[in-house]
Structures are given as C-alpha cells and as structure tokens.
Write a structure and sequence with these properties.
Blueprint: E1 4-9, H1 16-31, E2 35-39, H2 45-55, H3 64-88, E3 92-96, H4 99-109, H5 114-125, E4 132-137, H6 140-150, H7 164-180, E5 185-189, H8 194-208
Parallel strand pairs: 1-3, 1-4, 2-3, 4-5
Function: Phosphorylation of dTMP to form dTDP in both de novo and salvage pathways of dTTP synthesis.
Family: Belongs to the thymidylate kinase family.
Catalytic activity: dTMP + ATP = dTDP + ADP
Length: 218
C-alpha cells in the first residue's frame, strides 16, 4: 500500500462528522480523486445495508455480540472493496470511524471485552490499522446535550439513545485505547468553537499527509 489512511474517532456529540465534512470541502478542489472520504459502518452497498440493520432503533432485541460481529462484517467488506483499493492507488483515505469505535462502543460500552472485540477485528481487518487517528475529545454530558439540542430526530440511532453510563464507559474505553496507542493518536479538543476545531484538524492532516499537499497550500 502506498496511500495514507487516516481515521476520525470520538464519542457521540463530539462533532467529528461535521468537522470532517468541512475539512473535506477545503481539500476537495486540490486533491480531487486523490482523496477518498468514507465512513463506518458503511462505505459501499453491502456495508451500508449492514449499517441500516445495526443502527435501526427498532432492533432493540439485538444481542451485543451480534452487534459487534455485524460491525466487523461491515468493516471487512468496506476494507476489501473500498479502503484497500484506494490505498493501493496512492489515495489519501479519510474514514469516519474504524476499529477503535468497535473496541470502545462494543468492547467497553457493551462490556463484552475490549480485547475480545479487538481480536475479532484483527481477523476482519488482517490487523490493518490507520497511519494516524484523529480523536475529538469532549465530556460525555456535553456531547449528549449537543445531540439533544441540535441533531435531527430522524438521525438519532440506537446508540445515541443509550444510557449516560454506557456513554461514560465508551469514553473511558477510548481513553484506554489512546493511552495504549499514543503514537497513532492525535487528540483535538472538541469543546472549542467548530471553526477552531476545523482549523486544528486541517492543520493536523496537512502535517500527517504533507506529501499530498503542495508547499504553498500549507
């Protein structure tokens, strides 16, 4: 692989998806088809179908291990059909969530074991990890208040309506992952105004993937 793989992670309400969209708008004219922007679960037809099953608020009876396996299945299809081909053709791949989300949400949040979920995803991804992961940090209550105030009710999924205790476990899970992978993670304060978060993120990607940008764009 000769491209560069960067993932965006964060607890619910951190604003990472909104920030990612704004950053991509800035990069699009310069990078064009040298950049792939994708998400998990999803990113292609099969993975998007699995996404709908996972996040459907009607699927309240879904077993936690079933949920974790579905995420891993969607990720496997996403990897082989979307991410790997892009990396092999020297593209900058920006992905909204990846393995760390499963380890934090299902491993820590669902309490089925961070190591068990990590091992499941090692099988699904053949141990492929991002070159760098940008983590948007925000206190749990602040993130959930943002969702309650600003997110369209039609976009609130099964995980958004989980208990505060669940989201606190997810946040702690992320902190454990970061502590164990400090060289891979870059942490951004998501409590800042969105303009500042976008600025910090744009600067970070320029530094991480400098080979994709001309010197006069920095």
């Amino acid at each position: 692989m000769i491209g560069k793989f960067i993932t965006f992670e964060g607890p619910d309400g951190a604003g990472k998806t909104s920030v990612m969209h704004k950053v991509v708008e800035q990069f699009q004219s310069q990078l064009g088809d040298r950049m792939l922007v994708t998400r998990e679960p999803g990113g292609n037809k099969i993975s998007e179908q699995i996404r709908r099953v996972i996040l459907d608020r009607k699927n309240t009876e879904m077993d936690y291990r079933t949920e974790a396996l579905l995420y891993a299945a969607a990720r496997r299809q996403h990897l082989v059909e979307t991410i790997l081909p892009a990396l092999k053709t020297n593209k900058l791949v920006l992905c909204d969530r990846y393995v760390d989300s499963s380890v934090a949400y299902q491993g820590a949040g669902r309490q089925i074991g961070m190591q068990a979920v990590a091992q499941m995803n090692e099988f699904a991804t053949e141990k492929l990890l991002p070159f760098k992961t940008i983590y948007f940090d925000i206190p749990v209550e602040v993130g959930l208040n943002r969702i309650a105030k600003h997110r369209d009710s039609s976009k609130i999924d099964r995980l958004d309506v989980e208990t505060v205790a669940f989201h606190r476990r997810v946040h702690q899970g992320y902190l454990q992952i970061i502590n164990s992978n400090q060289r891979r993670f870059l942490v951004i304060d998501a409590t800042q105004p969105i303009e500042k978060v976008v600025e910090d993120t744009t600067h970070a990607i320029h530094q991480i993937a400098s080979e994709f940008f001309e010197e006069d764009s920095l």
